[in-house]
Amino acid sequence: MSTGLAVTLIIVGVIVGLVGGFFIARQYMMKYLKDNPPVNEDMLRMMMTQMGRKPSEKQVRQVMSQMNKASDKPEKKKK
Hints:
The chain has helices spanning 3-35, 41-50, 57-72. The protein has 2 domains: 1-36; 39-72. By secondary structure, it is an all-alpha fold. The protein has 3 helices and no strands.
C-alpha cells in the first residue's frame, strides 16, 4: 500500500467523520431541545412570582405563545 493512498484514506476518513459527527450532534440537540424546552409554564410562573407579580393563567399562556412565536420565526440578519 503506497503512502499517498494511505494519506488520502486518512483525510477522507477524517472528513467523513466530521460531517457525520456534525449531523449526529445536530439531531441530538434538536431532539433534546424538543424534549426539554428551555422555559416551560412552571418556570415562567416562578419567574413572574419572583419579580413580584401574581401571574394569571391568561398572562402565562400569552407570554408562552409569544416566546414560541419568536423561537419559530427565523431570525433576520441585520445589515
